Amino acid sequence: MNRTRTASTPATGPEPGRSAGPTVLSVHDVDVTHTVAGAGLFARAHLHALTGARIAVRRGEVLGIVGESGCGKSTLARVLVGLQKPTAGVVRFHDQDLWQMPAKRREREFGSALGMVFQDASTALNRRLTVRRVLRDPLDVHGRGTREGREARVREVMDLVGLPPSAAEALPGQLSGGQRQRVAIARALVLEPEVIVADEPTSALDVSVRAQILNLLRDLKDRLGLGLVFISHDIQTVRYLADRIAVMYLGRVVEEGPTAQVTAAPRHPYTVALFSATPSLLDSAERITLTGPLPSAVDPPSGCPFRTRCHKATDTCAEELPEPREAESGHLFRCHHPM
User: Fold this and answer.
1) Which domain holds residue 69?
2) What is the pLDDT of residue 19?
């Protein structure tokens, strides 16, 4: 097996696993398949949104998930927060099979342990409710504490995310985009979750506001010991924030490992291609430009899903799906001909 070369650049993200705690949530060989209309009048086809996904989320660690649009990132996010039941495979919450738990217990324990921040807060927040009501509703639904205690918790999370007290009686539409996203983050925090899943939380924001929200998320992770899953198509943003990176292509995780290792010595050609879009991220002289469209998830290629766009593809790539291989401890990739 080829060994990963020694990194010649300094670590560019947070120190890998510096404060990582126990695994809270994990997915094992998870598939998500949707039935869609086929070519004929009554035909049906299967869209493979997620295939063989394996991911672990630990407390105190940021897991960045990156890939092109349509690669399965948002589907994985929905699986992680329990909004999407897998077609196959197992989702484990504290070593328990999530979908084997009784529904009421799953709602009570898992529902409060996971928070989610959506891409566009302007559509994710109820525009008819004040900020105070938006933040108090999860506490009311889960019956947390007294009325006075709930109001105190609302004030506490508003302060935690940097919202002024005057914002409590405002409607979401009266706030700036950055303030609305802070409300969305506060709502995700209000039940004191163990893990937050943030799906493209800065893509709808102005460039000047993005850094503020990224710094807020990293600060909250450090202060509260949260696990954070940060999903983005922007490898630069993921590199800045994440302790570990998982690279997805056509519903599969093709490379995963500590940020410093994956950035300094990417092994999968697709990972190198993503980094090539930002040359400063890639120390190697080799650059890869992807050609051709992303294959259809309804009719994915045989063997390696990346082979139709890969300059290193051979007959083996068409015949066999690559098994996971290890470059260094914790750095895994799926490729017959690694970089």
Assistant:
1) 23-36+46-333
2) 52
